[in-house]
Amino acid sequence: MPRPAKHHPERGDARTRLLEAARDVIRAKGFAATSVDDLCKAAGVTKGAFFHHFETKEALGVAAAAYWTETTSAFFANAPYRKLDDPLDRLFGYVEFRKAIIDGDPAEFTCLVGTMTQEVYGSHPAIRDACAASIFGHAATLEPDIAAAMAARGIEADWTPASLARHTQAVLQGAFILAKATGGRAEALDSVDHLKRYLTLLFSTPRSKGNPHDGS
Amino acid sequence: MPRPAKHHPERGDARTRLLEAARDVIRAKGFAATSVDDLCKAAGVTKGAFFHHFETKEALGVAAAAYWTETTSAFFANAPYRKLDDPLDRLFGYVEFRKAIIDGDPAEFTCLVGTMTQEVYGSHPAIRDACAASIFGHAATLEPDIAAAMAARGIEADWTPASLARHTQAVLQGAFILAKATGGRAEALDSVDHLKRYLTLLFSTPRSKGNPHDGS
DNA sequence: GGAAACATACCGAACGGTTGGTATGGACGT
DNA sequence: ACGTCCATACCAACCGTTCGGTATGTTTCC
User: Fold this and answer.
1) Is B169:B135 a contact under the CB 8 Å cutoff?
2) Does B140 touch chain A if contact means CB atoms closer than 8 Å?
3) Is B210 helix (H, G, I), strand (E, B) or coil?
4) Contacts A174 to B, Cβ<8 Å
5) pLDDT digits (tens, 9 = 90+) for A155-166
6) Mean of the pLDDT values across residues B175-181?
7) Interface test mutation site (partner B, options A102, A173, A177, A200, max chain B beta carbons within 10 A)
8) Which residue among B107, B204, B213 places its CB closest to the CB of A92?
9) Are A128 and A62 in contact (CB under 8 A)?
10) With an 8 Å Cβ cutoff, are B118 and A177 in contact?
11) Residues with Cβ within 8 Å of residue B210, at least 6 apart in sequence
């Protein structure tokens, strides 16, 4: 039950400020290259505050992933496209929304948990698990709409709503890497457009056939 | 013009061994978390050798990206699918080949330059540029086949061969992140299957129409 | 042909700075 | 008075980097 600091009433408490600093700094520099001092400086607190709230740097990484999950969940749950009636419209609304928030610097629109996963999957299993839960939890929110859209159009496919939902995340994560490589957003947006076109093709075909180029 | 070391003909020279160690260790631990000592230990050389061949750790990162470009270029150029006659068969052969090499531990099948890009794009521009050249250079090798396949089937599209080629890389990079998150390969393979299905749909439609769900 | 002069490849101890983490004490609300 | 919250001071380990040194060619000139 952490009470808000009273002597700095205009800013949030140290823990939240550290989590926000982690969100911003780690997206820009990566987890390993971000020092505890970096985070304290960005949050405007001292090391005493840091290790009061987090046992280790790894624990902060886990907490940052959890914080990311909370904030992004609320962000998408309240997005306008969620109010659309048709499930397929909501699915395309999601993709359009993702496109719309690809703006500014890569550090501002890329995914914290995707970045951390890539970096620490081998050395910090606790962080990796928190990131995986975030990514796949977010993907799971798309499944009901996909399933409903399939049912509404009578689509019998050799893919599952879950696999398509995860595929959207793969495309987004990959698009972020392209954006980081170039420093621009055009390549990322192009790739999301390809995803949009794929969804269009999937849901305009009355019956999804087997892949004629299947290697088997 | 470094000539090959003559007095130790049985092992590769220290430089190559360090580059191979970098390829393996950085894929497993990331660039920032990999120390120079780690690399020297893995390569079986001393720090003296390291800094004899590379001015800084960053310079090794650039060289490792260049080495990755060289070795993977040769690897794909000699792959069996390259011998197929039909351009579209080569394109699907490429995707199948990518699927086939997703095997073992993520550290063994994921992309060094994608990992490094994600991590150092902000702090080490020199490494980022070398990685970007590798990714987009590899993507460019797909463009001729895509363009030829489009021409052969009379496809008029609102996308370019270059954008589709880059999209394949985005899907692969994103698939690698999913694989790292779970520790398994199934999710990565699923996503590449979605890519394959997308290509099938694109090249089975006689004329690619505008996107009915376009937000405009 | 042979030795001097130079170049290349590598070793390993040491350095200054930074790292994640700790020990301790004080301000504050209850 | 007491626990929570945070600041200051500090530490040992580790970091990337430097550098004096050795071993082994290669080139040059007599």
Assistant:
1) yes
2) no
3) coil
4) 169-175, 177
5) 999 999 999 999
6) 98
7) A177
8) B213
9) no
10) yes
11) B158
Reference A45, options A4, A2, A13; nearest CA is: A13
Domain A58-204 maps to which CATH number in 1.10.357.10, 3.20.20.70, 3.40.1110.10, 3.30.70.20?
1.10.357.10
Tens-place pLDDT, residues A54-111: 999 999 999 999 999 999 999 999 999 999 999 999 999 999 999 999 999 999 999 9
Interchain CB contact of A33 with B (< 8 Å): yes
Please give the full DSSP string across B32-93, using - where no structure is assigned.
TT--HHHHHHHHT--HHHHHHH-SSHHHHHHHHHHHHHHHHHHHHHTSGGGG-SSHHHHHHH
Q: How many CB pairs under 8 A join A and B?
A: 199
Give me the pLDDT at residue B75, please: 97
Fold of B66-204: Tetracycline Repressor; domain 2 (1.10.357)
- Count of residues making up chain B: 216
CA→C1' distance for B209 and D24 (Å): 69
